[in-house]
Recover the amino acids of this structure.
């Protein structure tokens, strides 16, 4: 998989999740205006790209989602 470009001031998080949950995750992220963009290639692995200053907020959200066993961080 070719990873999306993440430049200075950006962080990435890679996740594995079921295909049916990709759309759900995208809608969750839309509720957090500008938190992260989601990129995937239908392999079950997605990459989230976020502004570095929002990394803690993104990680906290991912912690909550992991407790629900929806996502697996890679």
């Amino acid at each position: 998989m070719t990873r999306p470009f993440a430049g200075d001031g950006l962080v990435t998080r890679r996740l594995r999740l079921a295909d049916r949950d990709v759309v759900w995750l995208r809608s969750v992220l839309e509720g957090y205006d500008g938190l992260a963009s989601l990129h995937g290639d239908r392999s079950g692995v997605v990459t989230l790209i976020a502004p570095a200053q929002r990394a803690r907020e993104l990680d906290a959200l991912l912690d909550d989602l992991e407790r629900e066993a929806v996502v697996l961080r890679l």
Summary: The helical segments are 19-30, 55-67. The CA atoms of residues 38 and 65 lie 15 Å apart. The mean pLDDT is 88. The chain has one domain: 10-73.
